[in-house]
Design a protein that fits this description.
By secondary structure, the protein is of the alpha+beta class. It has nine helices and nine strands. The relative contact order is 0.08.
């Protein structure tokens, strides 16, 4: 049953009855189903609660306040149904969560690339260099990264890494030193584009810790230098060849004995 009211402004009052039930059920069902699917989309980006997820929860909570307030008669105009205001708040919150962070483009693709089991830090950024996703190992390898970092610009998380990445091209690999837990670590950094069709909508940053490998290479180089010095100091001629009899090394004494040109 509908009743037309003139005060405090012109509006229609829908008197409680069976006709009102489908409308309420439709609103609640739409919000519930939409929230469920969006939550799964946002949370697929990380095991932690993301910024868009928090915006979604706030939109839902604020969105149902006018509906509940109207039902309880707690709002200023008891005869007016304030539910449309709640729906508007919900839509604005969802729009912010989806479009402000570009999760509608990047997240489903990023989760196919990022695996929680990888041992090296991996980051996913969108076209605006904002963090979209990351591996679990990234939180251990980058001190500035935590559960609140999703949606933040990469430069706000690690300025040095952001500046270094900005100089790299697709597929290019370079080495970078970063301070982790007070210790300088060597990383091999590589970029890979995330494409939707023919358009790049983001990038995956791969960081491989090569500190141990670099230290091993330095040790080998040191040992090589020591052996060469010992060989040069020897009074005997020393010649080193490979299995194909290609000369790998000859000391000065050997060159003098056999008149080998330098």
């Amino acid at each position: 049953e509908f009743t037309f009211r003139q005060t405090p402004f012109s509006h229609v009052e829908l008197v409680s009855g069976l006709a009102r039930v489908p409308g309420i059920a439709y609103v609640l069902t739409s919000i519930t189903v939409g929230t469920y699917y969006l939550w799964n989309l946002f949370e697929s980006a990380s095991s932690e609660v993301s910024v868009p997820s928090k915006a979604l929860v706030a939109a839902v909570l604020l969105g149902v306040v006018p509906l509940l307030g109207s039902r309880a008669g707690l709002l200023p105009v008891e005869t007016y149904d304030h539910t449309p205001f709640g729906v508007s708040v919900f839509l604005l919150g969802v729009s912010y969560a989806v479009f402000q962070h570009n999760f509608y483009d990047v997240s489903p693709i990023a989760r196919d690339i990022i695996l929680d089991e990888v041992v090296d830090p991996m980051l996913v950024i969108d076209g605006e260099s904002r963090l979209v996703d990351h591996s679990t190992a990234a939180e251990e390898g980058l001190p500035g990264l935590d559960a609140e970092s999703l949606g933040e610009p990469l430069r706000a998380i690690d300025q040095e890494l952001a500046e270094f990445v900005s100089t790299l091209s697709e597929g290019e690999q370079e080495e970078l030193s970063l301070t982790v837990a007070g210790e300088t670590r060597q990383f091999s950094v590589r970029l890979s584009d995330i494409e939707k069709g023919e358009t790049a909508i983001g990038q995956v940053i791969f960081l491989r810790d090569i500190t141990e490998r670099k230290e091993f290479q330095q040790q080998l180089q040191y040992q090589k230098t020591v052996l060469e010095a010992q060989a040069e100091a020897s009074i005997s001629g020393i010649l080193l060849v490979d299995e194909d009899r290609n000369i790998l090394f000859a000391n000065s004494k050997f060159a003098d004995l056999w008149d080998v040109p330098p």
